[in-house]
Input
Amino acid sequence: MAQVQLEGSGLTCVRGGREVFSGLNFAVGGGEALLVTGRNGAGKSSLLRMVAGLVRIAAGRMGLTGGDPERTIPEQAHYLGHQDALKPSLTVAENLEFWSRYLGGAGGAMPALAAVGLDSLAELPAAYLSAGQRRRLSVARLVAVRRPIWLLDEPTAALDRQAQERLSLLMREHLASGGLIVAATHGPVGLDNARELRLGAAA
Amino acid sequence: MSALAALFVREVRLAVRVGGGGGIGALFFLIVVVLTPFAIGPDLALLARIGPAILWLGALLASLLTLDRLLTADLEDGSLDLILMSDTPLELAVAAKAFAHWITTGLPLVVITPLLGLLLNLDAGASAAVALTLFAGTPALTFIGAIGAALSVTLRRGGLLLAVLVLPLTVPVLIFGVAASNAAIVGPVPFGTPFTILCALTLASLVVGTFAAAAALRQGME
Output
């Protein structure tokens, strides 16, 4: 897979008529992680949603080099937001199987479930999962379908220590295979060579 | 194509499982039709005359009942974000969801119509005619309703607004649905004329509803 590079220049975000940030520049290459930090309301989530194509780019431009030229940036990205995109009445395996097939994966939910340690709960309806288990099931989606860009919004929220270590292992594997990560976070995520993008500091 | 099949299967599963609301519409339809003879009184001729209209009104209201969950549920749990990001065109995703919604809420109405016809003193032929017009017309109700569902998706308690938005648009479907049923039962208009217009309304709504709902979603998600 070619070396990917995600770049944003002069990005401006406007939410509800208020300018959240403006003139933001960043660049992340394959194998790199960018931690977006800043106080509450600085626009961390907005930046991630902007990359995911869910928030309009008010000014500036964003580009991806080295990816699949036939696909847009959101189509090559995984977005792990605050919500887990799970249906309580479907089982753990059915939830993952659906997203895997919908996002163009090859199917086969079990290896991904094993990677997040949920394989023993595959037949349990997702309604019975705890917040941390729901989060892990959400993460399994990122493993099941291979995509070069991971957009993680507070990825460690609700995860226990063991699950956090497992997540950072998955993230390191993703980076090692040439992927890139943009994560909004308040705390450490267990990556050594991550760069930090601090929002709201310059203003 | 496999992505759409997966979405369709998921929607059907969600509807038939606990809390999915697949049977709610049919139950509501049953209640409306069962209560009508009590309200009208034991005038069999009158019941038979207004029977098709009652069935159509009941089906119209029943199919609106669960439409507000068509997209709101996916917005609330974040699924809609992923559907918007996906390389599957949003139009097709909306169409797959609406089709699954019709299979689980519209089709049961058609199936129980012959049974409910008995309560309204409709003979077998008349019931079959109403069921046929409902079969042809209820997809239009679902796909027109999808526009309202997409427009009101970001609103809390958007269900009532949805009804206000959608009901005026469903008037032509109601008119030609009842007209076709009556044409089949009492004449004098040939059945084919209003029934063909009903089918045309449905086909048009499949296209217009799908594209309008997808456009409304893209605007509304901002």
In short: DSSP finds nine helices and no strands in chain B. Chain B has one domain: 2-220. Chain B has a mean pLDDT of 86. The two ends of chain B are 27 Å apart (CA to CA).
